[in-house]
Structures are given as structure tokens and as C-alpha cells.
Amino acid sequence: MSTKIRLAKYIAHAGVCSRKQASRLIDEGAVIVNNRPANHIDHVDEQDQITVNGQIIKGTAELIYFAYHKPVGIDCKLDQNDPASLYHHLPTITRVYPIGRLDKDSRGLLILTNDGELCNQLIHPDFHQPKRYLVSVNKSIDAEFCTKMAAGVPVDKQITLPCSVEKIADKQFSIILKQGLNRQIRKMAHYCGYKVIDLYREQISELTLQTLNLAQGQYIAINKSDIIK
């Protein structure tokens, strides 16, 4: 007899979405277990009938991974009715979703996968997986700016975690984050009196765009070991 596991974990293993996103779907009433609305304490296995947004899910999906070089102007929300949505630029062989979204005005590395557990490992701050960005701003950077950004500043009613910030040109710096608040770098820079002109993510964990040699708008199949050791 198989061991029953928590519903959100089962949904993540089935390749539908991350555990966090699964919990949100349960809250929204989009998950049905054995013909009744699901709740968070449900434990399930393959003998149970589970539907997410009306679609039956079963077992563990074949896990796949892609790297995508996102251009400016692509929205990471998976909305098939939006011509600018990432939905229209994904591999069509199976359902994948982005890990660590970039806002529409930002560019660089995205990881696309159906591996909900990997998503949790990469975006949860407890795992401390680094993400490196190159950022251009509207005026010259001084040492005080780098020190202030690195120490942590108020964003969305909390202080950002300490991070690495290095000036690399008069109006450009690199920053390595281990958390992912909404529009975090833009909000951090704004607090310090700067406006972000260009934001480019070049690295997530072990994976870098430089080694992939991907043109903007291209994606390539990768292995999980390329991302995290």
C-alpha cells in the first residue's frame, strides 16, 4: 500500500505547480479530492481522485527542465489571452512554469520546469540559493549606496536580507540575492534614491546565462544537476 502524503506535496510531485502555488489553489477552491472540495490537511495517494481546475492529475510527472533567456516585454504570468504572456513562449511538449519570475521590464535567466520540489528549493529563503543580477541605474553610484543596499532596506514592510552589492561601472552594479520579494531590486534602489533603467538576471544557483550562450527569446533543455548540486 502506498503512503499517503499531504495534498499540496502530491500536486507538486505531479508537476502541476509548486507547493506554495498548490496551497493557493486549494484556498481558491480549484482542487477537488474524491468529489469534494479539498482542504489543506488532506493526505492522498494514487488511489484518490484529484482534480485541479477540472483536470485529473495522477502520480509523479516526468520532470523536465529548460533555461529561457527572457527579453524585456514578456510577462511571466501564464495568461493565454495576453499576447505578451510567457505562455506563448514556453515549450509545448508538456506543462512547465517559471521559477523566480522576472517582471515585464526585466530580462535574463528564467528556469522553466514542472518540478515543484525544485521550485521550493530555489525560491524558499531557507535554502539560500543565490541569484545574481546586473543592474543599471539613472545616476552615478557611490560607496554609500552599495553599503546601504547590502545591509538591507525596507521593502513591503520588512527589511531585506543582507546581500552582496558591488559597483561595476559608474551607473551599474551587481547584486546577489537569496530572497525574492516582488520587484525587490527596483524597490530597494528606489528607497536609496535611484531608478532602475535595466535589470538583467545572469545566474540562478549554479546556472548562468553566460555558460548557456542563449540568445534573447531562446530556451534550451537542461538537467537538474545544471541548476543545483
TrEMBL record:
Catalyzed reaction equations: uridine(35) in tRNA(Tyr) = pseudouridine(35) in tRNA(Tyr); uridine(2604) in 23S rRNA = pseudouridine(2604) in 23S rRNA
Isomerase found in the keyword field: yes
Domain RNA-binding S4 intervals: 5-69
SUPFAM superfamilies: Alpha-L RNA-binding motif, Pseudouridine synthase
Record-linked PROSITE patterns: PSI_RSU, S4
EC number: 5.4.99.-
A matching Pfam family: S4
Molecular function in Gene Ontology: 23S rRNA pseudouridine(2604) synthase activity; lyase activity; RNA binding
Taxonomic superkingdom: Bacteria
InterPro entries documented for this protein: PsdUridine_s_RsuA/RluB/E/F_cat, PsdUridine_synth_cat_dom_sf, PsdUridine_synth_RsuA/RluA, PsdUridine_synth_RsuA/RluB/E/F, PsdUridine_synth_RsuA/RluB_CS, RsuA_PseudoU_synthase, S4_RNA-bd, S4_RNA-bd_sf
Keywords: Isomerase, Lyase, RNA-binding
GO biological process: enzyme-directed rRNA pseudouridine synthesis
Residues in the signal sequence: none
PANTHER family: PSEUDOURIDINE SYNTHASE FAMILY PROTEIN-RELATED, RNA-BINDING S4 DOMAIN-CONTAINING PROTEIN
Similarity annotation: Belongs to the pseudouridine synthase RsuA family.
Name of the featured protein: Pseudouridine synthase
